[in-house]
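Board notes, transcribed. Complex of a protein with adenosine monophosphate.
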Amino acid sequence: MLIFKQIKDLKKHLQSTDNKEKPKGFVPTMGALHEGHLSLIKRSKKECKLTVCSIFVNPTQFNDKTDFDKYPNTITQDIVLLNDVGCDILFLPSVSEIYPDGFTDNTKINFGFIAETLEGEHRPGHFGGMAQVVEKLLKIVRPDKLYMGQKDYQQQIVVQALIKKRKLNLKLVICETLREKDGLAMSSRNIRLDANSRKLAVEISRTLQGVKEAVHQKKSEIYTIEDWGRKQLESFKGIDLEYFDIRNAETLRSVSSTNEKMVALAAAKIGGVRLIDNMFLN
Ligand code: AMP
C-alpha cells in the first residue's frame, strides 16, 4: 500500500494512473479502524480497480472539543489492517494540509432540514464541517465510487445532497452496518467504553430491534412504538438519551403513514461516550 501525506503527491500519482485504474473507489474515514470500515474497503476492492482510503480526524465537524481531543488514534494498527485487506492507497494528511487557510468555509451549502434535524440539532455545525471536508477530499481523490456506511445514516443523506448540489459525477455506495455479536454497532468510539458502559451500550441496538419487530407486528400506531423505544432507553440509569425517532428514510421528516420507508435513529451518551445507531423498519 502506498501512503501519501501531501495533496500534490497523491494528485500526481492518481493522475498517472487515472485512465488505467478505473473505476476508482474511495473510503473516507477518521481512523481507529474496525471491521465496519474494512467492509467498505473490501466492497470497493470488489467493485473497483483502485481503492483509496483516507484517515483524517476533521476538526471542523466536532462541535465538542473534548470529543475531538479524545477521538481514538490507532494509526500503526490501522496501516497494518489496511495492508491486510489490500487497500491500494492511504491518504493521511495533516490538518494544515487540508486547511492551509484556516477553517473558514466560503462555499458553505445550505442543506436545510436534513442537516438541521437529529444530529444537526445536537451537534450544531457538524454537517457543515463534514460536507466541507468530504468536498475537499473528493476534489483531491476524484473517485468514481464513494463508499460510506449506513451506520452514519444522516451523513450519507447529506453527502447525497452534496453530490446533487455540486453535480458531482460519482456514485455513492451505502454499505450495511457491521455489528458486534450482541448487536452493538461497531464504532471507533466503542474502545472508549468501560465494562459497565459496554454492557449498557447494547440496549441501543436491542431497542431498535424491538421497535422493528413491533412495526412488523402492526399492533400499535407508529408514534406509540416510537414512544415505547424512547422510554425504554430513558429507563436505563447510565444512558443519557439525546434522541430516539422514527423518520421517513429519505426526507428524515416524521412519518404519517406506514406505507413510507421508515428508519429509527438513536443517539445517546453512555459513560461520556456518544454513540449513534439506526435501523430500517420496513
Ligand atoms: P468514521 O471513521 O467513523 O468517520 O467512519 C468512516 C466510514 O465508515 C463512514 O462512512 C461510516 O459510516 C462507516 N462505518 C462506521 N462504522 C461502521 C459500521 N459499524 N459498519 C459499516 N460502516 C461503518
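The chain has a mean pLDDT of 97. Residues 145 and 171 are 5 Å apart (CA to CA).
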